[in-house]
From TrEMBL:
Family: Belongs to the UPF0437 family.
Coiled-coil blocks: 4-31
Name the record gives this protein: CCE_0567 family metalloprotein
Pfam family, one: Rop-like
Lineage, uppermost ranks: Bacteria, Pseudomonadati, Pseudomonadota, Alphaproteobacteria, Hyphomicrobiales
Entry keywords, A to Z: Coiled coil, Nitrogen fixation
Species the sequence originates in: Methylocystis borbori
Length: 66
């Protein structure tokens, strides 16, 4: 596999991870005020997942342009 194909496969996995983090955050918001102490942890996981996904997409874009 090429580097671009590997990166696309990784992005697909990261996208699924980010969507799960989004759903976890959404589910938590619907349950509030139950489990309110976990807001920061769940939000941080979502933030990290989307940040990593965005970085990989930018890397892919730069490789495709080059």
């Amino acid at each position: 596999m090429s580097e671009i194909d590997d990166l696309k496969a990784e992005i697909k996995k990261l996208s699924a991870k980010a969507m799960q983090a989004k759903m976890d955050l959404h589910d938590l918001s619907e349950e509030l005020p139950i489990n309110w102490p976990s807001i920061m942890g769940v939000a941080q996981k979502a933030h990290d997942a989307f940040s990593e996904l965005e970085q990989k997409r930018a890397t892919l874009k730069s490789l495709e342009v080059a």
